[in-house]
Fold this sequence. Notes:
Blueprint: E1 6-10, E2 13-14, H1 19-33, E3 37-42, E4 44-45, H2 47-52, E5 59-62, H3 71-79, E6 92-95, H4 98-103, E7 110-115, H5 120-123, H6 126-134, H7 140-164, E8 168-171, H8 174-184, E9 193-194, E10 216-219, H9 228-235, E11 244-247, H10 252-265, E12 269-273, H11 277-286, E13 289-291, H12 302-308, E14 313-316, E15 332-335, H13 340-352, H14 355-367, H15 372-386
Helix pairs in contact: 6-7, 9-10, 9-13, 12-14
Amino acid sequence: MDKKKNIYLIYEFLSEQGGLEREIINHARMLQEEGYEVKILTCHFDKRILNQLPFEGLKIESINRFHTKIESLNLILCFLGFNKLKKYNPVAFLSYSSPANFLVRNKNSKKINYINHYPHYLYLNWDEKKEWAKGTQGFKRWIVVACSIIFGNLLKKIDKSLIKKNDLIFMNSLFTKRKLNPIYSSFYKNEPIISYPPLDPKFSIPSNKKIKEKYIFSSSRIIPDKKYGWLIEALQYLRNKIPLYLAGSVEDSYKNELMSLAKKKGIKIKFLGRLNTNQIKEYYFNALIFAFPTPNEDFGLVPAEAMACGTPVVIWGDGAGPTEQVIDGVSGYYAKPYNLKDFANKIDLAIESKIKKKNRRKIILASKKFSYNAIKKDFIKEIKKIVL
């Protein structure tokens, strides 16, 4: 195929089941549909994740020269230069992180960067870094946090210089752009474009499975910085005592911590584990309410997924990414930041007002802004401006 039709997506690891991985999948499909040859490049991938997420039909290649069973070692080797990037020369690389920007820094291809957030290990305060480092599999986050302690100023300088190299920058929300401008605005080659993460088209297909039990639903990677502890504490104030269902990967230690807290607060909780798209869709469709407790979230696609299934959402009214998705009083409610009693009150309001039944069509309509086809149109248009 003509080199001008090649775009390769790059992210350092594919071992977690989160929103970023879904972004990569949907962007890859969009580019494929436009006739581009697409490959997803990574230093490490977990075959279980490839089976749990809809990667079928996409080419995924490890760029590591040496393969071990240890993820952190694979990443270290890759970043020390023991990789096969020399053989890849597409017209453009689409990267999803600062480390991925570093890997392709010396390539002559056009560079596109999709930014979900700044590198947490560089710009969070110490307590936030510790909480962030706990929320992953293995030791990879602890390693970069340790590096930031020793080489923080140098790494920030490198990070900003890598931003300069990008021919096109996408950001996942207006909130992210406002948050990152004080750090990066003087380093932009071109003004960043807002491109929301797209919904998987499967969410627009109704689920026929009925779940009889009434429940509150939440899903994501279940990690400390997502603040599921806050959600459990908030639920103790509910008038409508119904169980909480949680979907997503979770470390045993954190799961036990949440279960202990739930027991203490008298909350019924059920962990559903990792679910594929069809499975999680059933829980979105049948939930009374979707609760999203994460503060200052850069975007967080799960509220839009819930709305696409006709389920209202309770979020914090903190001006963060979820407020760009949920319409207060129409597709859900904003709780006062970060008032746990008010969060519970808004869940009760959603249940007692029967907003799901009354506003179902409006809730689904609000999600259309983030539909696959709506996002694809502008995403492809911007890429074509630099990839002729």
